[in-house]
Design brief:
With 300 residues, the chain is α/β, with parallel strands linked by helices. It contains 5 helices and 16 strands.
Length: 300
């Protein structure tokens, strides 16, 4: 039914930049910034209406699910500026056209049908159960008590599997609240290494799920702009820097390793954010590489 030829592209945990975390910028050390280039490898990008199907694996509360659902709805819904929608519009600048992500099917798997320790093969099996293959992205979201092979050295992943007449495009993001928040929920948790500055307050009050939103945004951008490992990326095919992972750790202007950059702060809750979404939601979204400027685009 399907070939075993598939690829994985992962979100880059903040830990991978730790070797330069202790470096602070100084006027004597500043050099002219070199342009960041993600090469287009002439492959197909996803465009048009794309259904985002969600497979909830493990136990999520209704509030946790709503935080993520509202984020996906915000991708195509106008909101006060700066908005999730304006962040997503950067993908329209990539060659191949715009992808309109809409909420598709949802599957609740609260009984842990494959156990609480998953492999990549398990993820593909779960992603294939929605029966959505054409013009869709099937996303497996794992709860905080589910381990996934490579979790913490990667915070999420996306890939594709070829069927006889089509390809399954899928992604996975895990809740890192109890496993590795220092890698995958930064900046809402202190990093394991580097400067131990106070973490930011999560905009929706859930360190694990607000961290998932950052990683979900990362893999969605990578999925659209490099779905079949021949789109936009820099570096080796097996470990590419993609639309968002090329800008790891950047959330606002003036960012440097260990510092998110300038972001907005809610006066009532003290929560940090840089994007408005539907239903009054606020989110902190990572910078995305803009192919028209060859720079990391930030909302603030």
């Amino acid at each position: 039914m399907m070939s075993s030829n598939y690829h994985l592209a992962t979100t880059v945990p903040f830990l991978l930049l730790i070797f330069i975390l202790s470096i602070q910028p100084s006027s004597s050390a500043l050099v002219k910034e070199q342009p960041l280039i993600l090469k287009y490898h002439n492959g197909t990008l996803l465009k048009g209406k794309i259904d985002v199907n969600l497979i909830w694996y493990g136990k999520f509360t209704p509030v946790q699910r709503t935080i993520i659902l509202d984020f996906i709805l915000s991708l195509q819904s106008p909101s006060p500026s700066p908005s999730v929608n304006s962040w997503w519009k950067i993908t329209e600048k990539y060659k191949g056209g715009a992808a309109a992500l809409v909420l598709g099917k949802q599957i609740l798997n609260e009984e842990y049908s494959l156990g609480k320790s998953l492999t990549d093969k398990h993820l593909i099996s779960l992603a294939s159960k929605t029966n959505g293959v054409i013009n869709s992205v099937n996303i497996v979201l794992t709860a905080n008590d589910v381990t996934v092979g490579g979790f913490c050295s990667r915070c999420g992943t996306h890939g594709s599997v070829r069927f006889k007449t089509s390809r399954l495009v899928y992604a996975w993001v895990g809740n890192s609240e109890t496993q590795c928040p220092g890698q995958c929920a930064w900046p809402f948790h202190q990093p394991i290494y580097g400067p131990q500055t106070a973490p930011l307050v999560a905009p929706n009050g859930d360190v694990g799920v607000d961290g998932m939103v950052i990683n979900l945004a990362t893999v969605l951008a990578g999925t659209i702009t490099n779905p079949f490992k021949n789109g936009y990326f820099q570096g080796p095919v097996t470990a590419p820097l993609e639309a968002v992972t090329a800008c790891t750790g950047v959330f606002g202007s003036g960012a440097y390793p260990g510092y998110t950059g300038e972001v907005l702060v809610d006066k009532e809750t003290g929560a940090s954010y840089n994007a408005h979404g539907v239903n009054g939601r606020k989110y902190l979204l990572p910078a995305m590489w803009d192919p028209t400027t060859s720079k990391c685009f930030t909302l603030v």
